[in-house]
Amino acid sequence: MYDINFWSEHFSIHEPIDVRVPPQAIDSFADFLTLDSAKIEYVVHMADIGAIIERQRVLHNLHRSLSNTNDFAYNKYHTIEEIHAWIDQMVATYPELVTPLTIGKSYENRNIKGFKISSKKMATKIDGTKATTKKAVWWDGGIHAREWISPATIIYIGYALLSKYGQNPTITHLVDQFDYYILPVFNVDGYVYTWTEDRLWRKTRSKTSVPFCYGADPNRNWDYHWCERGASSDPCSDLFCGEKAFSEIEIAQVAKFIASQRDTIVNYINFHAYSQMWMSPWGYTTMRPAQFKLQDDGSIQAINALTAVHSTKYLHGTIAQTIYLSSGSTADWAYGIANITFSYGVELRDTGEYGFLLPEDQIIPTGEETFAGLLALLQYIEKYVYA
């Protein structure tokens, strides 16, 4: 009736939800909320979303016209071309630490491009002896196209690891202890679409069985409890699980790569926005896995360090209990199939004031606090995997 779009995916009694209302429905929707039979309190956070999106576009074009092509701004959002060029720049700048990583091609034939950070030094066990196998982490952003803060945060973190290696003792130690597989933009086709057509697009861009309904939710397409609760079989839904598990070529290729490294990868993090939550499996059920305490203690270490930077508050717990049920998710597959114990889904800033349209002046603070959280988590994991 009102053609509203729910930004919130979890619905609880006495908890706020975020909705986007088209201009023509604002008055009638407000009237509905204030009916005696409803009496629902509401607050307008963004009166004109279109104006905010247009302002971001204009500012980006202005910055690009004024900046040097090699001058990458970490406090700005960037196109996929700029991000891929930045990866090439990191490879050229830090050749002793960085190697390019192309996982494969997307549905629309774009490179799924990331990079690996490795000092090529042997890791050291807690007792001081050399470890026989160096462990690795996998961090990705942009699996949901409209969540721009996640690629921006991943990029900030990657640069922090590289630029401070050899200068900061903690960072140097952790880069020597782990290899890092970093994929700034997972859903490359969807991300491009948010820059060219629809800033609030979420899914991939593959064709479906329903005309004019495109893509699947790449965080519901994994082959672990696929398309159960918290997913949709409707191709027009934002939660569409796909025609089958791993139907999305991007998901299938990333899963294949991770599976090939399953003996070394000990930490998987899928960065999202928004809600400020650090979550562990399971998503498909409210039951907790046997290793929940081990995982959740890692979440606690991370968010305590994160909060200490800018006082940003995060929730923690299982995905299903903290935010909502979501079957066929990345974190569940990484833990349930790839046996990656420290598997997480992280929802970055904010809690709804800007939602998916987080202003650029929050990129650096988000990166700073998230990086602090990751360092604390890695120190926690290190004690477990190198015991």
TrEMBL record:
Transmembrane segments: none annotated. Keywords: Carboxypeptidase, Disulfide bond, Hydrolase, Metal-binding, Metalloprotease, Protease, Secreted, Signal, Zinc. Involved in the digestion of the blood meal. It is found in: Secreted. One of its GO terms (biological process) is proteolysis. Residues 76-381 form the Peptidase M14 domain. This is Peptidase M14 domain-containing protein. The active site is at residue 347. SUPFAM superfamilies: Protease propeptides/inhibitors, Zn-dependent exopeptidases. GO terms for molecular function: metallocarboxypeptidase activity; zinc ion binding. Belongs to the peptidase M14 family.
